[in-house]
Amino acid sequence: MIRRHVQDGACHIANQRALIHRLRRHGLPTADAEALLVNFKLIQRQHQEHLSRIEARDETSL
Fold first, then answer.
1. Helix locations, 1-30, DSSP H
2. Which of 53, 41, 40 has its CA nearest to residue 2?
3. What angle do CA 10, 4, 36 make, to 5 degrees?
4. Tens-place pLDDT, residues 2-55
5. Which burial class, exposed, middle or buried, applies to 48 when counting CB atoms under 10 A from its CB (0-12, 13-18, 19+)?
6. In 10 A of CB 51, how many CB atoms?
7. What is the DSSP letter of 20?
8. Which of 5, 25, 26, 52 registers the highest number of CB atoms within 10 A of its CB?
9. Any idea where the domains of the chain sit in the sequence?
10. 24 C-beta neighbours (distance < 10 Å), count
11. Can you give the pTM of this predicted structure?
């Protein structure tokens, strides 16, 4: 399940970056979208760290 969260998170980040690009291109405000992107990145980092811990634990239990 955590691998899925990491994959989904990467998609959310890419989509948010694309949204920010579109907003800028149309001269619209991006502050809220950029703040959300920061949160997405923080959550993604947490998911990646969690996945790393799980994988490390699994490697030591082999």
1. 2-25
2. 53
3. 35
4. 899 999 999 999 999 999 999 999 999 999 999 999 999 999 999 999 999 999
5. middle
6. 14
7. H
8. 5
9. 2-60
10. 13
11. 0.86
